[in-house]
Design brief:
2 copies of one chain form a homodimer.
Chain A: H1 7-19, H2 28-35, H3 39-51, E1 57-59, E2 65-67, H4 69-93, H5 100-107, H6 113-122, E3 148-149, E4 158-164, H7 169-178, E5 185-192, E6 197-202, E7 205-209, H8 211-214, E8 217-221
Helix pairs in contact in A: 1-2, 1-4, 2-3, 4-5
The structure holds a DNA duplex.
DNA sequence: TAATGTTTTTAGGATAACCTAAATTTTTAA
DNA sequence: TTAAAAATTTAGGTTATCCTAAAAACATTA
């Protein structure tokens, strides 16, 4: 619990958390793709993570991995670091939301608990990062997420953008240009069932967005 | 030059810079002590650093190591990161001067050049860190140091403390309690040639300081 | 200058985290 | 239901960075 986990292990846990968020175990291949390493290397590492004491993951051959409670706590710690750092970099150093990810990616592994506490306090304990992602609490619980993907909305529904889940710099810049940032009020004007395109009105402008984009934007309807 | 140096290598270079500041090469044993590793490991690493292209150190068996211009640039980069970070942690997160070292020690290896630029600009390009250490310039030159060790002063000389060179948390707290911080105006009242103790007046108070301390405090006389 | 002590290096090993290629298992689809 | 494709695992290797123990070089001093 208090033994220091390597950066590499922290990355594994973080991505396993993400990939198994839907309940289904994370697959070796998906994990390898996320981590940018070979599937064979992933197999080796998850076998190790499953056999340390206490185990950080649950693993059965060919069945993928899930986190144990210990593994999940470790993952949430890293995710909390990452998201607090993103918020901090934007608020105090003028980073834009498309620039912060990479920097936070490296810093998240090295900051102390003291540092974490200080930036959280300095920002008044924010609930979300600049992309709208929920920040795990100090006691490492992930707050409940009551948002839905924009892709599930249909014409005449209105919503407020809560979160954009993508590390893609270009996409983020594009969305910012369109005004599609957390807090933005939108209305669905049209839906095309064949390609799942949605026509969205933001302020006075309308835009057509593909499923690739609408599935990454999470909204609060109402 | 632009290949990323590992954290470990950055640490070697930083300490070689420091240990060879007096012109004499850094010894294997001293380096090992600084790095907290065995002398045998140091030998292995400096052999490697001497044989990469371009070489980062000059090394001859049993003669110690010095930095090449490339090695020195790399060292100054890390030192700049460290000192800027210390200043930034103190200024923006309320760290005290005895708390910053450890945190900066880890962050120095992972911040981007962009981050470096942003914090330098945010602080108005400071010349010294919270201990008074000179910060290498953005083009990686170490500014000239015109200070002298307090230990070289004699009775009736007055001086202004410019820098305290020690990572020792307890010592730093002690000195702060005594008011012996950068900027403090002091006067030497007495010198004991046998133990090299100095009696120092700061404001209204006087204190006797041993060589162990006075050799770590650097002052500007006048 | 020879003996002793210190410093440094060599030799041989360990571990973490990756790799490729080949083998195996699982899934898909003819 | 079986053959092909895809996913996963095993086997064997590499590199970086550390280790201990033993050997060698250097320095000191009697």
């Amino acid at each position: 619990m208090s033994e220091t986990l390597t950066q590499s292990i922290q990355d594994y846990l973080k991505h396993i958390y993400d990939l198994s968020a839907d309940g289904a175990p994370a697959s070796t291949n998906d994990l390898a793709a996320r981590l940018g390493i070979s599937p064979a290397s992933v197999t080796g590492m998850i076998q190790r993570l499953a056999s340390v004491t206490p185990p950080l993951v649950r693993y059965q051959k060919h069945q993928g991995v899930t986190l144990t409670p210990d593994g999940e706590r470790a993952a949430l710690e890293v995710i909390r670091h990452h998201r607090l750092l993103e918020a901090w970099l934007v608020q105090t150093l003028g980073y834009s939301w498309d620039e912060v990810h990479e920097e936070a990616e490296r810093l998240e592994h090295v900051i102390s608990e003291d540092f974490e506490r200080r930036i959280a306090a300095a920002m008044g304990h924010p609930l979300r990062d600049p992309h709208g992602e929920l920040i795990p609490t100090a006691d490492l619980k992930m707050p409940l997420d009551d948002t839905t993907p924009l892709s599930t909305l249909r014409p005449n529904q209105t919503a407020r953008i809560q979160c954009v889940k993508s590390p893609d710099t270009d996409l983020l810049r594009h969305l910012e240009d369109l005004g599609l940032v957390p807090g933005a009020q939108i209305e669905v004007m049209d839906y095309s069932p064949f390609d799942h395109n949605l026509t969205i009105k933001i302020g006075l402008k309308s835009t057509v967005l593909g499923f690739n984009i609408t599935s990454k934007i999470y909204v609060e309807t109402g």
